[in-house]
C-alpha cells in the first residue's frame, strides 16, 4: 500500500531532476555506458548498456535515497530514517544516511540473502530482521516510524526519490546524444518515472520503454484500467522488480510519459543474465537484466540506437548459480536424453565415446539395469549433456541415432 497520493505533492519536473544531479555530484558515480556488439547485431542497431550495476552499493537506488534524505528538515534528520527492503533499497538508504550523518534503521525479511544483510550493516544501518515476506517487513518499518518518529523512506513513491533516479536519464542523454530508445526495468516505477521525466523534457522524440517480469506485472493491467491495481502473489526470480502494486506517484508519470510497458518471461531473464555475464563480462541481477531480456525477446522491436539500463548487480551467489543453470537450459545449452543399450561390458563406454566424438560434455549419467520395462539384456541410460547451443543439440541427437541408438529427448 502506498503512503502517498499523487495530489499530495507537486509534480516531478525536469528542474527537480537537474537539482538532484547537483546534490549527487561527488556522491553517485557517473556510471559507464558500454556498447554491446552481440546485442547490436541482434537488434540491427547500436545497443549500449548503462551500467548502474557498477553504481555505489551495486544499484541505482543510492541516487534517490540520497536526494530524499538530503531534502529532510533538520528536525527530521535528527529523528533518523527507517526503510524496509530485501536488498538494493536497504543498501542505498544505509549508505546515503551514513554520508549525511543520519541514523538509519533498515528492516529486512528474515530470509533476506546474507550478503545483502551484511552489506547493509557495513554501510552503517541498524538492521532488523522481521517478517517472512516483504509486506510484513514493510508493516514493521511503518510501525517503527509511527512509534519513534523516524522518517519512512519509501523505495519509489516519493518525488525526491523519483528525481534522484531521473539523473540516470540525464547521464544517458549526455553519453549517447543520438539515442532513440531507452529500455528500463519497472517494479514500483521510481526509476522508469524519473528517467521519463528527464528524457521527455529534453528529448521528447526518444522512446522510453518499461519492462516488467511477466509473473509480477502490475503495470499493464493498471494502465489499462487507469488506476493502480494489485497483483496478488507476484512470482519472479527478479526480486528487484517483484512489486505487487505500482506506486501512486510513479504510476501517473509512467501513464503520461512512458511510451510502452512490456513483459518478459523467466526464461528470457535467465538468458539475459547469462548473456551479460558471458558477452559483456558484467554481473547483473535478474531485475537489472530485464531490459536485455526485452531485447532478446523481440530484437527487431526497438528503434536504435538503444540504451538498456542495467539497474543493479546485487545477486546472491546461490541464486546466480540457479539462474545461470536455468539460462543455459533456456538457451539450448543443455540436452537431456534417454536411450537403451545392450547390457554387456563396454556398452556404456562405447556410448560415452560416441558422445566425445560429437563434442558433447556429459554432466550426469543415470544407468538402470533392473526395471520391469526393460528386457533381460537391456539397460536404460539417462544423460544430461552440455552442448554448444540448439543446433549442436540436434547434431548430437542425430549423431547418436546414426550410431544405432534409439534416442528420446527429455524436455
From TrEMBL:
InterPro entries to which the protein is assigned, alphabetical: ACT-like_dom_sf, ACT_dom, ACT_ThrD-II-like, Ser/Thr_Dehydratase, Thr_deHydtase_catblc, TrpB-like_PALP, TrpB-like_PALP_sf
Matching PROSITE patterns: ACT
Example of a GO MF term: L-serine ammonia-lyase activity
BP GO terms, sorted: isoleucine biosynthetic process; L-serine catabolic process; L-threonine catabolic process
Enzyme Commission number(s) of this protein: 4.3.1.19
Annotated gene: ilvA
Alphabetic keyword roster: Lyase, Pyridoxal phosphate
Pfam families, A to Z: PALP
Assigned protein family: Belongs to the serine/threonine dehydratase family.
Family annotation (CDD domains): ACT_ThrD-II-like, Thr-dehyd
Known cofactor(s): pyridoxal 5'-phosphate
Record-given protein name: threonine ammonia-lyase
